[in-house]
Design a protein that fits this description.
Helix content is 10%, strand content 40%. It folds into 2 domains: 67 residues, no CATH class; 90 residues, SH3 type barrels (Roll), CATH 2.30.30.100. The chain contains 3 helices and 11 strands. The C terminus is likely disordered. The protein is globular, with a radius of gyration of 18 Å. By secondary structure, the chain is mainly beta. Strands 4-3-2-1-5-9-8 form a 7-stranded antiparallel sheet, with helices on one face. Strands 6, 7, 10 and 11 form a 4-stranded antiparallel sheet that branches.
């Protein structure tokens, strides 16, 4: 059984992401993800990959043109570019949107919108953040951040057009609240 035996190869596709690591290093990688027959959105692919129990993620460092293996626990955040119509499935319902500022233990912060649904009429962002997922999604300026909850120090609710907006049933008809990106809100410190 040689390493060049193609019968043992698993077909993969590449997903381009930016990562902020615990060391405060930002890198652009192509992560290798399993090919699935149905078309999937980049944000969904990334979320599925990060929520798996595997502690390491394979990829390629685009700048050095080398294969790398990244520790999922060392990821502060992972970011993919997206467009509203490609990322938000019109069948996915979100009841609430809250603009937040997330301060991270590595000294940087990210601002964006958290979309969530909750079964109670008094839904709280805190209940969403206390969910079982390891990463929280933050949408901002055509980017999707998946932030590792273990690096979150403080989440501050920011005013939106209306605080904790109740969204229409179909998010596809709603425009994102887009603010200009600043150095501080870019997540790079």
């Amino acid at each position: 059984m040689g390493s060049s035996d193609s019968s043992y190869l698993v077909p993969k596709e590449r997903l381009t992401v930016r990562l902020l690591l615990r060391s405060k290093r930002v890198c652009r990688l192509e992560l290798f993800v399993p090919i699935r027959p149905q078309r999937r959105r980049p944000g969904r692919i990334l979320r599925e990959l990060l929520e798996q129990p595997n502690p390491f993620l394979p990829g390629r460092d685009r700048a050095a043109d080398r294969i790398v293996i990244v520790s999922r626990d060392a990821l502060v955040w992972a970011q993919v570019s997206k467009t509203f119509d490609l990322e938000m499935d019109p069948l996915e319902l979100y009841d609430y949107k809250q603009r937040v500022r997330v301060e991270l233990s590595v000294g940087s912060c990210v601002e964006g919108d958290v979309y969530y649904s909750a079964p109670t009429p008094r839904a709280r962002l805190m209940d969403h953040l206390n969910g079982p997922e390891s990463f929280v999604c933050l949408h901002d300026n055509g980017r999707l951040f998946l932030i590792n909850k273990s690096y979150v120090e403080l989440v501050t609710e920011l005013p939106t057009r209306r605080s904790t907006m109740r969204l229409p049933a179909i998010v596809g008809d709603h425009d994102f609240c887009v603010e200009s990106e600043t150095e501080e809100s870019s997540g790079e410190g």
